[in-house]
Amino acid sequence: MGAGRLYAAVATGGFRRYATYRAATAAGVFTNTVFGLILVYTYLALWEENPHLGGYDQAQAVTFVWLGQALYATLAIQGGGFETEFMERIRTGEVAIDLYRPADLQVWWLANDLGRALFQLLGRGVIPFTFGALVFPTALPDEVGTWLAFLVSVALAMIVSFGIRYLVALTGFWLMDGTGALQALMVTGIFCSGMTLPLNAFPGTLGEVVRALPWAAQVQVPADVLMGTADPLPSFLFQAAWAVVLLAVGRLVQSAAARRVVVQGG
Amino acid sequence: MDTFIEVDRVEKVFEVRRKTGFMRRERRQVRAVDSISFTVARGEMVGYIGPNGAGKSTTIKMLTGILTPSAGRLRVAGIDPSRERTRLARRIGVVFGQRTTLWWDLPLIDSYRLAHRMYRIPDARYRENLDRCVELLELGELLDVPVRQLSLGQRMRGDIAAALLHDPEVLYLDEPTIGLDVVSKAKVRGFLKELNAGSGTTVLLTTHDLQDIEQLCSRVMVIDHGRLMYDGALAGLHEAGEGERTLVVDLERELPPIEAPSCRVVRVAGPRQWLAFPAGQSAAPLVAHIAAEYPLVDLSVREPDIEAVIAKMYAEKAVS
Amino acid sequence: MGEYKPLAEGLRAYRLIAGMWVRSTLTYRVSFAMTALGGLVVTGLDFVTIMLMFSRVDELGGYSLPEVAFLYGLSATSFGLADLAIGSADRLGRRVRDGTLDTLLVRPAPVLAQVAADRFALRRIGRIAQGSLVLGYALIASDIAWTPVKALMVPGMLVCGGVIFSAVFVAGAAFQFVAQDASEVQHAFTYGGQTLLQYPPTVFGKELVRGVTFMFPLAFVNWVPAAYVLGRPYPLVGLPQWGAFAPPLVAAVCCAAAGLAWRAGLRSYRSTGS
User: Residues 29..68 of A with a Cβ closer than 8 Å to C: which?
Assistant: First the structure.
């Protein structure tokens, strides 16, 4: 099937491209390790005070930290994925060319982003995670099945993350300056995905709300699948549901945007 | 002669690292500028030409203080650019062809206002220069436009104005007409000619467009592989490089090679023939002769390829 | 010609360029207000996280919420001041990469001043405002045994902290002369440092605290002097009593070191080009 091969090539391209940014990747590994260290100590102190916070014990809290750092670049939680390039193309108007290409815009960027995400998981995420697991007591599972379920969850998380960023990028069609939208993305990303504090530790109604949002599908859900604090199947359903919704809305907004481009003369 | 720029056996050596294998790296020394010496008098308009990578930009960077020379002595208005960069900066103007000195996101006029304060230009002088530049470079309607929205030609004109507001004693132009359309090129060239003639500003122009030189400079320096190959009058360059221009002739039908004085046929393809003749010569008599003797449909003149001229010179120097 | 004073020249150039950006920003008042407010909210989420933590615990590392807020307010405000003053130096790597650094070198102004004022972002005031609010809360809510010395130390910490963070920014920029793609490493020290200092030193391992106190002296931004103000012992043996008053000295040393790094970086650039 031609389309399949096309998108596979796009994904490979994305992977290869990010693989060439060696210095930046190394710098990223360093940064993630440093932030991981800071968070670990903070959580250790926090869980000293409240040993069962969020239903986790200390080891699980530590695992959560390193998982968050490992997934940080992959899921572009603070941005840094395809969306900057996409928004630039929207800003300069080059996206009009893309809209006339035979490839589907959303699927094209999805393939591109997945390629990037895969590289950053392997090239940037694995090292801080391994470092953390070796130096600190973590709660990693023994069964292969759990690890496989975890990988599925991460894959779904990648799609959800894409869905969110795709919508943010599309705002570039209506807003003059994309930096505001990107900034908002960065903030919500960090906060609502649980990177600063596990969502399970959020109190009361705020906690319930934030655990239902799509950002929860990024770090919180894969973490729970990995550590066995949530059942895989309902977790997958939650992630998949958000993925479908975000992608569908993305397509709707995309067609509205495409119409706008045509009307304005591209 | 009032010497303004002194370049004495200046060298610039770069270390280039290249990967030759999986883990191995090779270090190579690249002599971007290899012992160049020349002087430029106040008020001269000099062309500085050479192929890509010849060392033109590197020389300019050393003259403006961006780069420090690896060896040799460099003086502009008696000042060593690498030691007293800011002191010299007040007295020079620079136009980079491929980058702008203007502030990208702000309106053109804001860059000028900033230059006014930064260069400490007296108010009256600033007004005068600004008005004159705006008029001569046709910037009137562009002053409130953000620089990033300007076309290349407009931006170039804006850059030139910015470089001149503070009455610099020398103006360096690094590939100023690159990427410009014919009309913009003509405007820029005309402006520079007037500037040099009227204000006596020394102008050093690097380019690899021979047309720029022919229209503006009486003196030209040729640089190749970091060495000064030629330094003298433009006319002499063609002789030195045995430059040839090419006349491309389209006849009514295929004919045996054209015979005409001081030209030779280089190539024949059907009714089209390529004739080479010495570059210093005018094409007019040749064209007239061919038009008179042959059934001519159309013709065009191709200028000598600068690379070819220089390559020839280089080959000659190597031989002699 | 007159004597050439680099510092005065630098400040003047900085004032001119930053002034231009400020004027330009303020022509779109509403947009600016919204972005600044956005910045306040955005950076405020850091403290929201801390508040959420304290909704589940009473103490962190033995420090109460007002005490942590004190540390947070000092760290965030100092960082905000440095970010406003010189945060743009971050973009040096980009300029080196696309060759636009050269355009700065042909101007009659020190490069560092131009780099620092480049795209001066008044909206960064949002972070300063947010940090100040938290600091204000901390000053009110905590029961510090105030003395005139302690009262003077608070603005002192802000100034010295700002200078120390600025030195880190400059050193980071100097690093970008050599490694343009690795500017993220700088973030580990600047943003990482600020995050680290939000929490009490008692939370962290001894080696980390030692490193941040003696090797990379961020601890003098707030930890060390704040321990004195809060009347708490500093969790590290080997730090003399007068350490709490050392921030100005540390700031001066950091400035000197950063200045050297910058000069070395610039010299290296002018020798090897781009």
Answer: 30-31, 34-35, 37-38, 41-42, 44-46, 49-50, 53
The continuous run of DSSP H or E covering A160 comes out as: helix A144-170
Residue B269, beta-bridge partner list = B272
Which of C129, C131, C91 is closest to C112 using CA atoms? C91
Q: pLDDT tens-digit profile of A45-57?
A: 999 989 988 889 9
Q: Band of the pLDDT at B307, cuts 50, 70, 90?
A: low
List of residues 6+ apart from A5 with CB closer than 8 A: none
Count of the separate structural domains present in chain A? 1
Residues of C in contact with A29 (CB under 8 A): none
- Indicate yes or no: CB of C102 within 8 angstroms of CB of B118: no
Domain holding A116, by residue range, is 2-263
* Closest-CA residue of chain C to B94: C106
ipTM surpasses cut 0.90: no
If 0-12 CB within 10 Å is exposed, 13-18 middle and 19+ buried, where does residue A134 land? Answer: exposed
Report which of C144, C125, C133, C154 is spatially closest to residue C47, judged by C-alpha positions.
Answer: C133
3-state SS class at A163: helix
> How many cross-chain Cβ pairs, B to C, lie less than 8 Å apart?
68
Q: What tens digit of pLDDT does each residue of B241-297 get? A: 666 788 889 999 888 888 888 888 888 888 898 888 887 778 888 888 888 888 989
Query: C-alpha dihedral over B116, B191, C100, B50, to 10 degrees?
Result: -150
Residue A27 has its nearest CB partner, among C46, C182, C192, at C182
